[in-house]
Amino acid sequence: IPHNELATIHDSMANMLKSLDDAAKVSADPPDMIPLALAQTIHTGQCGRPRVEIDPNLLETALSMRGPTQLATLFNCVPRTVRHCTLEQNLVEPGPPVYVDYTDEDRNSVHLYTATSRDQSGLTDEQLDTITQKILKVFPLFSRRMIDSHMKYLGHRVPRRMIEESYLRLIHWRIIFHAFIDGFSCFITGVRASNNNRAETVLNLFLEIIEEHDTPSQVREGWDMVHTFGGSKNMSPVYNVCIERLWWDLTSSSSSKWKQFFQDLEHHDGLNP
Fold first, then answer.
1. Which residues pair with 111 in a beta bridge?
2. DSSP label at residue 251
3. I want to staple 266 with a disulfide (CB 3.0 to 4.6 A). Which of 16, 147, 226, 271 is the partner?
4. Which Pfam family is one of those matched by this entry (predicted)?
């Protein structure tokens, strides 16, 4: 192929590919009208950010479908601006004040803070265990935080301590794993299966680890209860990759097999946990 024809072929292919890329970005049904202005920015000439105004009818209709956080992207503003607009246009009722100024007998001004949270549910341990058991039956992999969120969805406001206690009471074989791992090298310093989740049990394991591996420079700990091995485990927050990986390896390589073994003994040989 002559040099000039080869250059023509390369240029033609490049132009063809560019045309295809441009065509992919063009809508098959282009709009024939100017886009609707959902929010207007008003420059008042005063200090501070310009004012954002949203059409009341449009905002009322949008609030019936989404909350301020989702509508903020639509109106190109922050969620607080959407909430301020709803209050100014009387679309929602304002909440109670954070505090009220009160003057005592000695003429001292005191802030009386008002509680905005709902009262805690008066569930008994038996009622809480029944609800937790139903949740775990439908969602067996739910952690304590997920159970707490589902409780709120059901309309129950329960302290996390009570949810932890209920979770532990429902452990089938009462086998609980505690583990320590080095966050830098991912070296496992200690793993133990216990029949309780008391603080002294974890402390004894930690003291034994210190005797063998010396005192660590810092310790990170979490109480996210995760259903595994018919029991639970103490795990660090999600950003601790080493302990997360350890729980996965422990569950997949060991505890899941022991769980299946105990279930077979219970179903076929009359094991009573």
1. 101
2. I
3. 271
4. rva_4
CA–CA gap between residue 262 and residue 193 (Å, rounded)? 15
- For residue 42 the two structure tokens come to 């008003």
Domain ranges of the chain: 1-28, 39-89, 125-170, 176-269
Which one-letter amino acid corresponds to residue 7? Answer: A
pLDDT in tens, 136-146: 888 877 877 88
For 124-242, strand residue ranges (E) read: 176-181, 188-194, 232-233
- DSSP code at position 117: S
Residue range 100-111, pLDDT digits in tens: 777 777 778 877
The model's pLDDT over 74-102, given as tens digits with 9 standing for 90+, comes to 888 889 999 989 988 888 888 777 777 77
Residues 6+ apart with CB under 8 A from 271: 262, 265
Residue matched to tokens 């058991």:
133
User: What pTM does this model have?
Assistant: 0.45
